[in-house]
Protein 1
Amino acid sequence: MAWSGIKRRVFISHFRGDRTEVDNFINHFANNLGIFTPYVLGANDNDEFIDSTNTDYVMGRIREKYLKDSTVTIVLLGSCTHSRRYVDWEIKSSLRQGNYTPNGLISIVLPSQNNSAHLPPRFEANWNQEHSNCYGRYWSYPTTGNQLGEWIDDAYYARSTRNKLIVNSQSIMKYNTSCKIHNQTH
């Protein structure tokens, strides 16, 4: 499938420890190439960070403030992304159905991870290696803007073509878990 050329609204989920690579991704693909319009929690110092232990409140705020206008969620995978509760909550909010159309879902491995990273459990439940009969897609870092545009288009259309494959009933992550690579919780 060729990229449609439509600039979609994309929510970027990430671990704050990968901020430099996340900013590089956004600057290159969104700002320089114009492939998508980014929505990012904590993207700059003016953003209000949602500081609450009430999970429903946090997921509602993520949906209202960041996801409501986006159509695709990209999870940028660094070494500890899989262990972060806010990433889990952002994925859960992205996959919510009912009153909402779910966001398309993609995971992309950041360059520092050499094409391999542990997946957040909620994403992993929505993916398989063959990309068959699953909602999410897992990719290495894109080599071109057109390639990323194709992946975003695929995720966008999955909202109506693959939404019956969404798995989102598991309990939310209440706390960060140990990072499998560094065995730390940052």
Protein 2
Amino acid sequence: MTLNIKHTQCLIVEDDPFKMDSIRAHLKSFFSEKIEIEECHALATASFALTISTFDLAIIDMSIHSHEPEAGAGSPFPLSSGGLDVLFEIESSGSNTSCIILTQYPDIPIEEVPIPVELAQQEILEKFGIKIAGCVRYVEDDNRWKAEVTSILEKL
């Protein structure tokens, strides 16, 4: 799918600036710059982006903040399963967005139970009926995540 379209609309939900830079660079390289990226650093901004735009691809971190830090808005709080909320919103929208989970943690909390990253795709399908393209563990200074994301993208 993604290789056959002229321009890919992508949502990246990630609150770590270094990881965001790495993901953005890898996607731009893979898509030969034929990609438009919307960057969200928190659940609230991702939710808003999903109400006003449709995306072909979403790269989602599972542990994100509730909202962007803003003066007078209260401190954002971490949501260890905030990425699941993004998946639920994408699923309920009826869009045809291909989703890839990219997390730096070895486990993803699903209903408060830590599920190893390599088993999370099947667990999310079985528990919630949400089909995702893949789950990848991001390890800084290790390029395996890029190879895994590339492999998933090539199958879309």
Protein 3
Amino acid sequence: MYKDRFEIPIGELYNKAVLKCVNKSWRQYKLKKDYYKPTEKTLEEMCSATPLHGISSQNWIKLLKYWDSEKGKSLSACGKAAGASLNQLHRFGSNSFANKQADHEDEHGEKMSLLSLWIKAHTGKDGSSLPGTVTEDFVDDAKAKVE
């Protein structure tokens, strides 16, 4: 589906660029978890610590002050609450639904129904759903309505 729209170059230069982008994203993802410890250190102690390679001291201090601000704390709490309230978790990882549909179409020569896509996204390889989710109930209700 989308594979026809993009021309992805092959070669070492492309591989290095992708790895650099992924590495930067991963590093940014782990920054707060690994380096912002308000219960263990004061803001001044965290600001005086040497920032990671590739982050300037000015940007590091701005980031720490943002995380320590009321707005940063409020948005963080909101994000944590939103993540905790999820009751139907998908298992596709970083693959998009469109890519999964396109892969299915390439393999089987037919478009995957939205219900089949949803079921595949929310169940494991063995067909089981994650414990503590409402996935099984949703699937049963959806199948009943389709039939």
